[in-house]
Amino acid sequence: xxxxxxxxxxxxxxxxxxxxxxxxxxxxxxxxxxxxxxxxxxxxxxxxxxxxxxxxxxxxxxxxxxxxxxxxxxxxxxxxxxxxxxxxxxxxxxxxxxxxxxxxxxxxxxxxxxxxxxxxxxxxxxxxxxxxxxxxxxxxxxxxxxxxxxxxxxxxxxxxxxxxxxxxxxxxxxxxxxxxxxxxxxxxxxxxxxxxxxxxxxxxxxxxxxxxxxxxxxxxxxxxxxxxxxxxxxxxxxxxxxxxxxxxxxxxxxxxxxxxxxxxxxxxxxxxxxxxxxxxxxxxxxxxxxxxxxxxxxxxxxxxxxxxxxxx
Length: 312
Ligand code: 3HC
Fold this sequence. Notes:
Keywords: Oxidoreductase. One of its GO terms (cellular component) is cytosol. By secondary structure, the protein is an all-alpha fold. The protein is built from 13 helices and two strands.
C-alpha cells in the first residue's frame, strides 16, 4: 500500500540516509534538531565563560596562548552550530533571545564556578573529554549539515582535551604538594557535573527514543556516560589523581567500571536555572547581546540592502 511521506523518511534515515536542508523532513524532526543544535551552540558560547575568567591570570605565556586558542575555538563552534540551526529555518536572534529568557537550555556543566587555575586543566580533561565522546558520535548523525560541522569541531575538541590532560599531568608531576591538592580539589568538584553532561539516565530521557529512531542520537546517554567513566578511570591513574567515587571499581564480567550515579536532583535544579552560576552566565550573554545590538542591526540593514540590490 502507498507509504506516507513520514514512513518513507523514517525508512530512509533508518537505513543510514543523510538528510540535507533541501530535503523534505517531518516538522517534528526539524523541531527536535533546532532544539538540540541550538542548545549545543548555546553550550559552546556559554562554555567560553568559565575559562575566560582565567585568560588574564594564566601562569605562563604558553598557557595563556593555549587558552586563548581554545576559547576562540569555542566561539567558532557556536557559530558553526548556529549556522546549522539556520539551515533548518531558525533565526539566530530568536535562538539567542530564547537562551537569555531561559526558554532554551545549555550544558548544565557551565553553571559551576572555575575557582582555581587547576580548573582550566580539569575542564579540558573532563568537560571537553565528555563533550568529544558525545560529539564524535554526532559525526554520524542523520542531518548532513550537523554531521559535517561535527567533523571540524571534533578535531579542535581533541586539542582541547589533550591540552587539559597535559596541563594536569605536568602540574601533578612537576608541581608542589599544594598544586597537587589543588588539582585533586578541582577534580572533586568537576567529576559529578561532567557525568551529568551526558543527560539524565536513559529511563528519564524523553527525547532519546525518537532521536535514536531518526538517527539524530547514535548512542544513548548511559552508554556514553559509561564509556566516559571507563576512559577517565584509566587516565586518572596516569596523572596520579583519584576519582572521587569510593565505589568506582573495574568489573571484569561487564568489562566496565562500576560507578556512582551523580545527584540527579541537583541536575534538575541546575537545568531549572537554580545552579550556582546560571544567573551570572545569562547576565553575561544578555549584556553581550545588548552591547552589540548595533552590529546586529547593521548586519540586518546590509542584508536587506543586498536583498534589494539582488532583486534589482
Ligand atoms: N545540560 C542541560 N540540559 C540537559 C543536559 C545537560 N547536560 N542533558 C540533558 N538535558 C536536557 C535536554 O536538553 C532535554 O531537555 P529539552 O527537551 O528541553 O531539550 C532534557 O534534559 C532531557 O534530556 P534528553 O536525554 O531527553 O535530551 P537529548 O536527547 O537532547 O540528550 C544531549 C541530551 C545528550 C545533551 C543531546 O542533546 C546532545 O547530544 N546534544 C549535543 C551535544 C551537546 O549539546 N553537548 C553539550 C556540551 S558541548 C560542550 O561542552 C563543548 C565544549 O567544548 C564547551
